[in-house]
What does this fold into?
Amino acid sequence: MKTNERVKFILNWMKQYCHSIEYQPVTLVIGVSGGVDSAVTSTLAAKTGFNTIAVSMPIKQNLEQHDLSLRHLEWLKSNYSNVITKVINLDNIFSSFKQ
It folds into this structure.
């Protein structure tokens, strides 16, 4: 299966799944870590046409990795009108649990 065919197959599966469940979602939410897996998955979510919220939630994250996450969020926003992005820094929450 060629890449374009695989992408279409996955997008069709995602849409069919969303339409098949009792409480059909109007929005998809996806975490973006800065890695390849979350970049591909968030892009596929955006390509479905569903409203998509892409969230980065760093906890003591390597700055280079977090920068990749932020750059991907910006890319998603600039390429898909159905995408909203959020950054929720969890460092303070993590520290409070640690204490």
About this structure: The longest strand covers residues 51-56. The first helix runs from residue 3 to 20. The helical segments are 3-20, 36-47, 63-79, 91-98.
